[in-house]
Amino acid sequence: MVLCYAGPMGTEGGNRDRNGPVVPGADAASGAADAFSIARHEIRTPLGAILTTSEVLLKSDLTDQQRKYATILHDAAEALVALSDRLFAPEGQHSLGTRRAFVPAALARSVVGLYESTARARGLTLAVSADTASEEQVSGYPAAVRQILTNLVDNALKYSEHGTVSVSAVQNAPNTTDLVVCDNGPGIDEADRSRLFEAGFRGRVETGKRPGEGLGLFTARALADRLGGTLVLEETGLQGSCFRLRLPVQGIAGDANGPADPDTKADRAGPYSVLVVDDSSTARTLAETILSAFGWSVTATASANGALDLLKRAPDAFDCVLTDLSMPEMGGLDLARAIRAEDVAPGCPVLAVSARHPSRFGDAHRQGLLAGYVPKPYSADLLYRTIVEAIEKPADRL
C-alpha cells in the first residue's frame, strides 16, 4: 500500500503568487492575519525538524549520556513548540496543544532536566519525586501541563537563594494528578496572596529585585483553569512557597487510543507504500526515516508535478496522499485538486500536513480534497495513527 506526501515552504495552500506577502491596498486585518499565520509556520517548521529528529534519535542505539542529551534536546523543542502555540494563540486565549497520552512523572522529570544546569549555577538543588500511580500513562494536554510546570519551576529557582527546589508528581485520587513545586525562597507576603495570580502583579517584597513581568503565575492559572484543574498556593507553615497543580486526567487502557503503537512491530498496520513529495530535503529525509521505521516502503520526489507523474504511471499503486500545503509552482491543495480532477488515483485519501489551524482547510475537506490533517510539528506516533485511520477508517476528521 502507498502514501504520498508533499512538503513545506514559506507559505501554504498553493503557489507563492496567490499566498505570498500581502498586496499593497489589501484589507489590513486580513493582511495582518496572513502575516501572523506565515510567521507561525516559519517558526514551527524548523522546530518540527528538531523535534522529529530528536525523537528518531531517541529510538536509536545510544549510550546513557547520549540519551540524556537527546532527551534534553527533545524536551526543549517540545517546550518551544508550546511557547509558539502561546505566542500565536488568539488574543486572550492560551493554547492547550494536542490531547494525547503522557506520563505525569516523566513530564515532571523532563522539566527538571531542563533546569538542572540553571539550578547548579545558582548553587541550588533541584529534586524530583513521583509515586507509582503517576508513572502510569494518562490522556491529557501535556504541552499545557509542561508550560504550567515550567513557569512554577522557573519562579521557584528565580526566588530561591539556597536550599532545594522540589518537584513531585502524585495521584491522590482516581483520575486526578497533582504536580507540586516547593522552594526555600522568601515566601509570599500575606498582603500579596489575594493578588498573586493577577496579570502583571509581582509582589511588594521582590518587585525590582528579580527580572520578570509578573505573567508566569497568571498564565499558569489561566491554563490550569482551561484544563479544568486548579493551581493554588498551599499553606505549609514552612519557609518558602509551595504551589499545587491539580489536574483531571483520563487513564488509558487497552487499545483506547485507536491504532496500535507503531513501536510494537507485531501489531503494526500495513505494510504501506509511501510517496513523499516535498521540496525540502530535510523534510523528505525525516518522513522517509519515520515511515521506513514502520516497515513501510517509501518513494520520495521533490515536486508536486513529479508526484503527479508517478501517480499517472502507477494509478493503483498509492493508498494515501499526505501533503504539506506549501511548495513552489504547485502547492499541496493544488496537487490534491489535480489528483481529483484528473482522477489519477481513485479512492486515494489526501492528508494535509500544516502548521496552520485545520479550520483553514474545512472547505477543502468538505469538497473531498482532504481526508485528514497532521499538525506540525508531528510525532512519529501521530503520523502513524493519522495515516492508518485515513486508510482503514475513512471518516470526517478535520
Topology summary:
Blueprint: E1 2-6, H1 16-19, H2 28-58, H3 64-87, E2 100-102, H4 104-121, E3 125-130, E4 138-140, H5 142-158, E5 164-173, E6 176-182, H6 216-226, E7 230-233, E8 242-248, E9 250-251, E10 273-277, H7 281-293, E11 297-301, H8 304-313, E12 320-324, H9 332-342, E13 350-354, H10 362-366, E14 372-375, H11 380-392
Parallel strand pairs: 1-10, 1-12, 3-5, 10-11, 12-13, 13-14
Antiparallel strand pairs: 2-4, 4-9, 5-6, 6-8, 7-8
Can you describe what's shown?
This protein has 2 domains: 2-43 and 263-392, Response regulator (Rossmann fold, 3-Layer(aba) Sandwich); 100-251, Histidine kinase-like ATPase, C-terminal domain (Heat Shock Protein 90, 2-Layer Sandwich). The model is unreliable at 5-26 and 254-259 (pLDDT under 50). Helix 2 packs across helix 7 (281-293). 39% of the residues lie in helices and 18% in strands. The radius of gyration is 23 Å and the shape is elongated. Strand 7 (230-233) and strand 8 form a beta hairpin. By secondary structure, it is an alpha/beta fold.
CATH topology of the largest domain: Rossmann fold
CATH level-4 homologous superfamily of the largest domain: Response regulator
- Compute the gyration radius: what is it? 23 Å
Low-pLDDT ranges: 5-26, 254-259
- Which percent range fits the helix content? 25-40%
Structural class: alpha/beta
Provide the number of structural domains: 2
- Tally the helices: what do you get? 11
Largest sheet: 6 strands, parallel
Q: How many β-strands, per DSSP?
A: 14
Order of helices and strands: EHHHEHEEHEEHEEEEHEHEHEHEH
Task: Tell me the name of the CATH class of the largest domain.
Answer: Alpha Beta
Strand percentage, roughly?
15-25%
